[in-house]
Amino acid sequence: MNGVGRCNMQNHTGNAGAESKAEIEALTPEEPQTKVTEEFDDILDIIGSQGRFQKFLLYVVVCPITAIQPFLTLNAIFMLFTPEHWCHVPGRDNYTDLETWKIRTIPLDPTRLQDAHGHPKYSQCSMYGEDGEPEACKWGWEFDTTDYLSTLPGDFAWVCDNSAIPTNAFTASAIGNAVGTIVFGHFADKYGRKPIFFLTITINIVFRIVSLLHPSNVKFFYLCQFIIGTAFPVMFIAPSMIAAEICDYVKDETNYYPSSVQSMGLRLHLDDLGDRMCGLPLVAWLCSDWYLIGLSTSVPAIAIYIYLWYLPESPRWLLSIGKHEQASKSSNNKSEDTSVAELNSMLRKLVAKQNRKKEAKNIGVWTLFSRARLARNTVSMNVLVYYGITLNTTNMPGNQFVNFFLLSIIELPSGWAGGVLADKLGRRWVQVVFFLVCMISCVGATFVIHIITLELIAVVLAKFAITLTFLVVYLQGAEIFPTQLRYTGSGFASTIGAIAGIFAPIIAQLSIHHLSYPYWIMGMLCIIGLVVSAFLPETLNQNLPETIDDANKFGKGVKFWSTRSKSITSTLGSLRTSRRSTAGQGENALDPPIVVQPD
């Protein structure tokens, strides 16, 4: 009697579980052993999850894509930089010394602090009139060309009465982020990770270049920045999300859970991002012109389309929407010992099982709040990302290129440290500790405002800590939400952070009143982030939730003061163990396993 016949008989006998075990043990070497698959994790374990394909995906696909992203998404920081400027006053021909001419023609502005000691700078928007009294600029402005030959605010006079234009452009982009995280996140869950990723890449490239053609039309420029902003969040998280759904699952007696390769992929993603962010100020410094900066950082992104042939669609997502044939094709690229026919059979039966649950209907953003625990996890993620984004609005003295480099280079050790600590100690408490470190650094900076070196050290340490929490947030985003809502959930969790970005310039502008105000605010936000992060469930060594019900039960029954432990068996693992124990108990058994006899 073959394996299939045994399976059919087991469904009609009272002691099927014992018979099944005895028959499996009695299999001869010539008779292949039956594979039992409960979830996609079981199939992934069978076909392999730590092979050459995963390494190829991480090192050859994810890293190069990440290498281009900072140039494509952060170039506006340099293009919209407003250099030091002052009123142009005719008649300087007889004065070779600029400082002497400023003393004669430009009044001091006591509201502008030159340094920590409170020395005032020259006014940017007024000059001395014929009567010796300050008046508004009449003949335009002159700009400091020490760092830039040309910027958008300099070429189009986006200063003084028009000084809000650069800030409004960033605000338009932030609003786009808020919209895009929901819209494209939902599309990625509905239409697939891969096509939406390349769609967002296309949107970013096209509208980056279009925005360079006619920036003098401010409304059109705002529109371009908004559209560009919609594409950024999903474009950023897509590579690591695909890797999280394909890569590296470790198996013990009862559980399948994401292990260090998933965090390694995200770590490489963030470290490579930080590495290329270090190169962005160099490119901006070499170009020194807003138009050249825009072209040189946008056009090379076309190279990402090479990966149309190499970046796979997530088989986990394909399976969640019932496309077992496409999932088989995608999964078989990673399989070395499993035949196509066997894999097709396993996936087809697993899809049939999922269809019986009827959970794929009417799923959208609202589903995140349909269950109490899932809603709590969603809101918590939102708050964390909110404060993470806000904390990036630090004010640092000195050269802009050097500042950007320092804040970028610190992400390299932060990313690696975060990955190691998150794998060793768990996600939740690592995040709590480094929110505390960030809070202490921000508050500490307020006491060393007059000592520039110490202030820089405090700010860089704060950036180190908040970057580490970013890594943990993205890991949790990939691990807390169910497969059917993984992009939607992560995108929605980023929405509040994107909305916070709208207010980030306001926080930065508080330094006009006192240099310490932004640090105090960010320190307080850190405290709130610390408290909220403590109530997120631990995700290390836990099963990825596949369904809405799984996600709602995630973290249930775990004590608040618990830490990462390999002995923890999640609710999902218990459910799967229960399912295996009920195998063969008749037609009324709870979710009987899918038994596949290899061809």
UniProtKB/TrEMBL annotation:
Membrane topology category: Multi-pass membrane protein
One Gene Ontology term, aspect cellular component: membrane
Stretches assigned to the Major facilitator superfamily (MFS) profile domain: 62-541
SUPFAM superfamilies from the UniProt entry: MFS general substrate transporter
Highest taxon of the lineage: Eukaryota
Keywords: Membrane, Transmembrane, Transmembrane helix
Location in or out of the cell: Membrane
Record carries keyword Transmembrane: yes
Region (Disordered): 1-21, 572-599
Low complexity: compositionally biased ranges: 572-582
Pfam families xref list: Sugar_tr
Keyword Amino-acid biosynthesis belongs to the record: no
GO molecular function: transmembrane transporter activity
Ranges annotated as spanning the membrane: 56-81, 196-213, 220-242, 290-310, 401-422, 429-450, 456-475, 487-511, 517-536
Protein name: Organic cation transporter 1
Organism per entry: Orchesella cincta
